[in-house]
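Appendix C: a fully annotated inverse folding record. The material below is reproduced so that readers can follow the format used throughout the book. The structure is listed first as C-alpha cells, followed by the designed sequence.
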C-alpha cells in the first residue's frame, strides 16, 4: 500500500484560509460508521426501524486539539459522531426513523427562551417525502417531545427511498426554524445513501473497502479547541473531512469511488488532484450528482461543489504505484 497524499489532502489544496497553528496531514481519514436501514445479512446488522438520537458530546477534530463540544447524531451517545453515521437504505424499501432529541436546554452558539429546551427537526436533503415527514422548520420538537412546533405531525419519519432518478446520495441535517444554521454548525448532519447493489455490481464491480465517503466542511476553533467559534461572515479557517482536520488517506494502486459532499455553510470547494513528480494526474470520472446518477459518466480534471452539493466520482490510482 502506498501513502498517496492525493485522495484527500490535495483534493482541498485550493482553500484560501488556513489555520497556521495546526499541522496538516497528521490524522488519518476516518471511515464513517454505517447504520443500515434494512437487514444486512453480510454485516449481520440493520433494521427497517431505526432510532437516531441527537446528543451533546465531545469530538476530537485534530491530534493537537482538545475534544470540542459538539452536537452529534448517533444510535447512542457513545456512538454519536460528527458527521453523523451514514444511513444506508435500499431503493423502494421504506426505512422508518424515530429522531430523538437529547440536547437539553443549553445551546453551544445560541440562546433559547428561558425554560425551553433546544428545538430540532430533521430534513432529508435531496429526498422526496410527504410534507408531514419532510422536516418542515415548524415541525420542531424538544427533548422527549415535551414541546412541538405548529407543523409537528409524527415522531417517526418513513422514508420510501425512491429518489426521482434512482439510487443516490442524500444528506440529513437539522432544519429547525431560527436554529438550522447553528445546529448544523454544532454537528447535526450526516450522509444518507440509497444503494442498489445489483445495479452497482453491474456498473462498477467494486469491493466495499474501496469506496469512501468524504464529508467536507469548514470550522474555526477557539484557544485549544474546546469550542468552535461563529464568525458572522461565515469565514472559517480549518477544513475538516469526516470529522478530522486536513486528514490523509493511504490508498492502494487501483480504482476508488468517493462520494464527496460539501456541508459548509457558505464555502465553495473546487477539487482537483495535484501529484508530486507526476505530470498527468488521473481524472475524476463523475458518476453522480445530488441524489442520482448522471445520464453517463463525465471525465473532468476538477469539480466545483457549492454548499450541500454532492459529487460521486471514481479515481484510478493504478498508474501511481511508485508515487508517495
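Designed amino acids, in order:
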Amino acid at each position: 500500500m502506498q501513502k498517496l497524499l492525493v485522495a484527500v489532502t490535495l483534493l482541498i489544496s485550493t482553500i484560501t484560509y488556513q489555520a497556521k497553528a495546526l499541522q496538516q496531514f497528521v490524522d488519518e481519514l476516518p471511515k464513517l460508521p454505517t447504520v443500515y436501514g434494512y437487514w444486512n445479512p453480510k454485516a449481520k446488522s440493520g433494521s427497517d426501524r431505526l432510532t437516531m438520537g441527537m446528543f451533546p458530546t465531545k469530538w476530537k477534530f485534530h491530534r493537537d486539539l482538545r475534544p470540542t463540544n459538539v452536537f452529534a447524531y448517533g444510535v447512542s451517545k457513545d456512538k454519536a459522531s460528527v458527521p453523523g453515521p451514514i444511513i444506508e437504505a435500499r431503493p423502494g424499501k421504506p426505512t422508518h426513523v424515530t429522531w430523538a432529541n437529547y440536547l437539553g436546554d443549553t445551546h453551544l452558539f445560541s440562546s433559547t427562551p428561558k425554560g425551553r429546551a433546544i428545538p430540532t427537526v430533521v430534513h432529508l436533503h435531496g429526498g422526496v417525502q410527504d410534507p408531514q415527514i419532510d422536516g418542515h422548520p415548524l415541525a420542531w420538537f424538544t427533548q422527549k417531545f415535551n414541546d412541538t412546533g405548529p407543523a409537528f405531525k409524527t415522531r417517526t419519519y418513513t422514508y420510501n427511498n425512491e429518489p426521482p432518478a434512482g439510487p443516490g446520495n442524500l444528506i440529513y441535517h437539522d432544519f429547525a426554524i431560527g436554529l438550522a444554521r447553528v445546529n448544523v454548525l454544532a454537528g447535526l448532519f450526516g450522509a444518507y445513501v440509497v444503494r442498489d447493489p445489483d445495479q452497482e455490481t453491474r456498473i462498477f464491480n467494486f469491493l466495499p473497502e474501496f469506496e469512501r465517503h468524504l464529508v467536507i466542511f469548514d470550522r474555526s476553533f477557539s484557544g485549544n479547541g474546546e469550542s468552535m467559534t461563529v464568525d458572522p461572515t461565515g469565514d472559517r479557517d480549518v477544513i475538516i473531512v469526516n470529522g478530522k482536520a486536513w486528514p490523509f488517506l493511504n490508498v492502494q494502486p487501483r480504482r476508488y469511488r468517493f462520494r464527496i459532499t460539501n456541508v459548509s455553510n457558505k464555502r465553495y470547494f473546487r477539487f482537483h488532484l495535484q501529484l508530486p513528480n507526476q505530470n498527468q494526474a488521473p481524472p475524476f470520472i463523475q458518476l453522480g450528482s445530488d441524489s442520482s446518477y448522471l445520464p453517463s459518466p463525465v471525465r473532468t480534471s476538477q469539480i466545483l461543489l457549492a454548499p450541500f452539493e454532492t459529487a460521486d466520482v471514481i479515481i484510478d490510482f493504478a498508474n501511481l504505484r511508485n508515487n508517495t
